[in-house]
Design goal:
This protein is of the alpha/beta class and about 375 residues long. It has helices spanning about 10-25, 30-35, 55, 80-100, 115-130, 150-165, 175-180, 185-210, 220-225, 245-250, 265, 285-300, 325-360; strands spanning about 5-10, 45-50, 65-70, 105-110, 135-145, 170-175, 230-240, 270-275, 300-305, 315-320. It folds into 2 domains: about 5-210, Tubulin/FtsZ, GTPase domain (Rossmann fold); about 230-320, 60s Ribosomal Protein L30, Chain: A (2-Layer Sandwich). The chain contains 13 helices and 10 strands. Strand 4, helix 5 and strand 5 form a beta-alpha-beta unit. The longest helix has about 35 residues, at about 325-360. It binds guanosine-5'-diphosphate. Guanosine-5'-diphosphate binds near residues 114, 117, 119 and 145. InterPro entries: CetZ, FtsZ/CetZ, Tubulin/FtsZ_GTPase_sf, Tubulin_FtsZ_GTPase. It is found in: Cytoplasm.
Length: about 375
């Protein structure tokens, strides 16, 4: 049995963590968290951290003891400099809470890259955990819609770089912009994206702690995640009625199934394919031919099979990337955003000259 730590930082991280807890408590009822046992096979500790009390109050499936409020008025806005100093002031409190929960085999820290709290707490939190412990820590990072504005874009660029430099064992990318295809209003898009991420993480935890017909384990996951450029994404697909396992694998690797825009066959570096379902669906020929196709272009592919009586085929793919064109695009937009912010600052300096002009009449009264 694995001991797993899952931390959700900031509003986005908190909500995805709540979606994980919703699935894990197996309940749609708001009160599920008060009486039911988690469905996890592993021992999973979840912690939601936020500076904004209202974001924490909004959570429905995460227990009160699993919420850490770091008081700072109404959050830190989108200001990462402020966020980092708030983290520094409260670091020992946060670390104590994590340490009181015992030892872990693996940890996940979930955050948006672009907001204030999550994006500024996550890099130093991972650094702190990595310095004090020797279990692997993976960041699950949500990228912004590109039209959300210059501050969010520049935050995303700096946050991702800092997470990479934090000692993290790998970054799993999910991209709001790419997942926008889901459609609907913003709130329901957020909920669908959060549920997609939650489902994938829970499937992964189930797979890492399963007795499979053909085994993949935490060691294989670590090997996959250490490949490529330290970046990864996850694909998932559950077969629709009558769909065979071959098509289900293809769908999991297509834009329908992935959390981040990538051409798997061009940008992939290593992969882990986990197939779950009733034995009758799991044709070894179909699975082998798809896995061979993948390994011929991405390199090593670990394969795991979980037999679950009566279940339609479901496929999860963890894929590390050696190139990420979409990320390069994001960084070039972010660089423009940083320049725009700098120019705005210069204009603000110019405005100070106007203030100086006004200040010349300070203390004077009109004389008629
Ligand atoms: P923080 O609370 O200061 O860390 O800020 P947020 O987590 O709200 O960060 C803002 C970014 O997160 C924006 O890019 C939003 O689009 C995104 N975001 C906020 N809430 C959610 C959510 O529930 N789901 C998803 N997928 N993205 C979210």
């Amino acid at each position: 049995m694995l001991n797993i730590l899952i931390v959700g930082n900031g509003q986005c991280g908190n909500r995805i963590l709540d979606a994980i807890n919703k699935e894990a408590f197996g309940g749609k009822s708001k009160f599920a968290k008060f009486y039911s046992q988690q469905k996890y096979k592993s021992k999973v500790e979840t912690i939601a951290i936020n500076t904004a009390i209202n974001d924490l109050k909004e959570l429905s499936f995460t227990k009160a003891k699993d919420r850490i409020h770091i008081p700072h008025l109404h959050g830190v806005g989108a200001n990462r400099t402020l966020g980092k100093s708030v983290f520094e002031d409260n670091k020992s409190h946060i670390m104590r809470n994590i340490e009181e929960r015992g030892n872990f085999d693996v940890g996940f820290v979930i955050t948006s890259a672009s907001g204030g709290t999550g994006s500024s707490f996550t890099p130093p939190l991972i650094k702190e955990i990595k310095e004090k412990h020797d279990f692997p820590v993976y960041a699950v990072v949500v990228l912004p819609f590109r039209e959300e504005g210059t501050l969010y874009l520049q935050n995303a660029a700096f946050c991702l770089k800092e997470i990479r430099d934090s000692g993290v064992d790998g970054i799993i990318l999910a991209d709001n912009q790419f997942l926008k295809q889901i459609g609907g209003d913003v709130q329901s898009a957020y909920n669908s994206i959060n549920d997609m991420i939650a489902r994938r993480i829970l499937f992964l935890l189930d797979a890492l702690d399963s007795e499979m017909m053909m085994v993949t384990d935490l060691g294989d996951f670590k090997t996959v995640m250490s490949g490529g450029a330290g970046l990864a994404t996850i694909g998932f697909y559950e077969a629709e009625k009558g769909m065979n396992v071959k098509t289900t694998i293809q769908k999991a690797l297509s834009p329908n199934g992935l959390l981040f825009s990538t051409d798997v066959y061009k940008e992939g570096s290593r992969a882990m394919v986990i197939i779950k379902g009733d034995k009758s669906y799991l044709s070894i020929d179909e699975i082998s031919s798809e896995v061979e196709k993948l390994s011929s272009s991405v390199g090593h592919v670990f394969k795991g099979i979980i037999v679950r009586k009566g279940e339609a085929p479901q496929v999860l793919v963890v894929l590390t990337l050696e190139a990420a064109k979409e990320l390069e695009n994001l960084y070039s937009v972010a660089v423009d955003a940083i320049h725009q912010e700098r120019e705005k600052k210069t204009r603000v300096e110019e405005q100070k000259e106007i203030d100086k002009a006004f200040s010349q009449i300070d203390g004077l009264e009109p004389d008629y």
